[in-house]
Specification:
Elements (H helix, E strand, L loop, with lengths): L1 E4 L15 E8 L2 E2 L2 E2 L6 E8 L5 E4 L7 E5 L8 E3 L6 E3 L13
Antiparallel strand pairs: 1-2, 2-5, 3-4, 5-6, 6-7, 8-9
The structure holds zinc ion (ZN) (2 copies).
One zinc ion (ZN) binds next to loops.
Amino acid sequence: MRQTVEVNRRIVCPICQNDRFEFIKTYQCFSLFFIPIPFLSWDKRYFAVCKNCGTTLQFRNGFNSDYIIAGAPRRREETKVRCRFCGSLISESNSYCPECGNKQ
Ligand SMILES: [Zn+2]
Ligand SMILES: [Zn+2]
């Protein structure tokens, strides 16, 4: 189960310095032969996901405890190559050089 929660805590993203986060609580309900086990035995986990870069922070024990970085940001590293004509650094996905306009 996954639930988005409202949390009054300001966190600054260690990666992009943004302070807008989505707080998520997840739990796993263990049930034995369909008999639900009391709420306290559920495995609860607390996360915050940066709305800007997607970095996931995981809290140790509840949203007011310390946190660690649990997931890397959704950053696409673009491979840089040199233009065959003018030598500028351009991203590999560019089919035209933005500097000199030549097709790669
Ligand atoms: Zn971020
Ligand atoms: Zn060029």
